Amino acid sequence: MSAPPILVVGSVALDDIRTPFGEVSEAFGGSAAYFSLAARVFAPVRMVAVVGNDLPAEHLDDLQAQGVDTRGVEVADGLTFRWGGEYGYDLNARKTLFTHLNVFESFHPSVPAAFRRSPYVFLGNIHPALQAEVLEQVEDPVLVALDTMNLWIETARSELLQVLGSVDLLILNDSEARELAGEPNLVRAGRGLLELGPSCVVIKKGEHGALMLGESSMFCSPAVPLEQVCDPTGAGDAFAGGLVGHLAASGDLSDDAMRRAIAYGTVLASYTVEDFGVAGLRDVERADIEKRYRELRLLTQFGVEDPVQKTHA
Amino acid sequence: MSAPPILVVGSVALDDIRTPFGEVSEAFGGSAAYFSLAARVFAPVRMVAVVGNDLPAEHLDDLQAQGVDTRGVEVADGLTFRWGGEYGYDLNARKTLFTHLNVFESFHPSVPAAFRRSPYVFLGNIHPALQAEVLEQVEDPVLVALDTMNLWIETARSELLQVLGSVDLLILNDSEARELAGEPNLVRAGRGLLELGPSCVVIKKGEHGALMLGESSMFCSPAVPLEQVCDPTGAGDAFAGGLVGHLAASGDLSDDAMRRAIAYGTVLASYTVEDFGVAGLRDVERADIEKRYRELRLLTQFGVEDPVQKTHA
Fold first, then answer.
1. Within a domain: A1
2. Per-residue pLDDT tens digits for A178-232
3. Which residue, among B5, B8, B13, has the nearest Cα to B146 in the 3D structure?
4. How far is B293 from chain A (nearest CA, A)?
5. How many other CB atoms are there within 10 angstroms of residue A227's CB atom?
6. Main-chain dihedrals φ then ψ at residue A161, nearest 5 degrees
7. Is B263 in contact with A302 (Cβ distance < 8 A)?
8. Which residues of B, range 123-162, sit inside 8 Å of A by Cβ?
9. CB distance B307–A251 less than 8 Å?
10. N or C: which end of chain B has fewer CB within 10 A?
11. What is the rounded distance in angstroms from the CA atom of residue B238 to the CA atom of residue B277?
């Protein structure tokens, strides 16, 4: 593949997940894992993360086999980050049962020399000071995208605002957008976030899709309406992976390209939620993705023609 | 206007509404009022309803002035239906403070002879037995649309199922769709509702837009993203009014026409929520509606081209 590479930094975790449709324990996950498995469909992915020496070797082997370069994954003495969560029938609301940072607690991302010239960079939702450390190690990126979470908005706001000054694309969910902007109206919140540095803000709304705000453009995508949703964990990271992956592959950062990239992100997220953990992303093929992209387009298109003018003028 | 007329039956009410942005008392409202003020933009509207002799004359005069034929509005001895409701910052969730049915309690809709040949019929969310009474009085309609509510799903299910057998288009909100179908997944709920009679189901999701399911088609529209939402009361009825109004005006019931009609319904709903009560609908002009329709289209469109194939094949 000749698409330019994407550098991702984020968490790698072992997750315990319970939904009304089943449960899994010690499932491979984390924001960097979901992002990578979605983005690698479109472009080579370089991962920077930390794992404990308890992580079964198969997980990183599997990533390698899927085209993810894991030379930036540090294996530290100790246990891998663990997260446990539970969902009810309202899969848009989740309850965190436990978070054990383990080796993640003292993580300082080190970008291997071979990764430093990565034109596309995705800063997963780690502490903003660590996101800034990564940016300092990267040379002349074309596009820097950043995700964050309520925890950092509340506990590391000034560091977050500082790193946002160097970010092109901010991807975050609706409650985070409202909290960071201090504004309940989502459109006004998005406009407020644009003033913090990024030239584009993408607000994820879970099953209700995504809203993009640019300096002079707005775009809405629904989520793919699915008959079977199994586990929403990682959908937002897979969305970001599909989005940034497609931007890298197209080499186009225009408004039209951003819309298409959001639609591809939406498609990758839809595969994620159809199975537990990363299972839904593992076997998805390019032809399936293109088919679902066309279905999403059919789902949202309507004509400009106004037949009223014709028949009753 | 040469568009064929629409018959609407539903409630006319005086509403007390409180939102974080203000409050109004004894505001003119009710499902038939909102529906009519939206539909009359596209087609002549004939209203069947009941009011008390306390209703200030200006309200019906105003409807007449806007092109709504109110000859089917019965003025009964007693008080007009009154409803009180309150919204918090989550405008998608509302709390009913009181419901005084008053003259509505003993209402039996009588369709004037001049209204009986109405090609388009909208049965607002009154008791399904009354909806059936209206249908019995109408001759050969082209399209019958029906809205309902949780109260009737819970207390008059068999009557509702019976009238649904004579309905072409079912318009209801997401919680109603889930409850009527007995299915939490919205796509499966929609498919279940298609089996009850209607050839098309439109599920309203408030600020999250609408989902249409036909026998072989699905369409998603977002709501118009607004910087100022004032009062969501009546938005669902205005949505139905814009939708059915545009279908009547276009004389086209194809899948493409249904998509356009849903987009027009979405636009009318957006004007409704920008002000209290029916005020947002009163002054809206056709040119404004067409402009916002084009904006909604721009908001949702994305290309089929996949530049990845071109640049990296």
1. no
2. 999 999 999 999 999 999 999 999 999 999 999 999 999 999 999 999 999 999 9
3. B8
4. 8
5. 12
6. -60, -35
7. yes
8. none
9. yes
10. C
11. 11
Whether A242 contacts A268, CB under 8 Å: yes
Contact at 8 Å (CB) between A115 and A48?
A: yes
| Domain, as residue range, for B271 | 6-301
H helices present in chain B, as ranges: 31-39, 57-65, 128-137, 150-155, 157-164, 174-181, 186-194, 235-250, 255-273, 279-282, 286-300, 307-312
Residue A312 lies in a domain: no
B311 in a structural domain: no
Q: Is the pTM of this model over 0.90?
A: yes
ipTM: 0.92
- Dihedrals φ, ψ of A137, to 5°? -95, -5
Complete DSSP assignment for B272-308? HHTSSTTHHHHT--HHHHHHHHHHHHHHH------HH
| The predicted structure's pLDDT at residue B305 | 61
Query: How many structural domains compose chain A?
Result: 1
Checking if the pLDDT of A312 tops 50, the result is: no
Looking at residue B16, what DSSP letter applies?
E
The reply to whether residue A262 touches residue B302, judged by beta carbons under 8 angstroms, is: yes
3-state secondary structure of B143: strand
Q: Under a CB-based contact definition with an 8 Å cutoff, are residues A278 and A33 in contact?
A: yes
- Euclidean distance between CA atoms B217 and A37, whole angstroms: 31
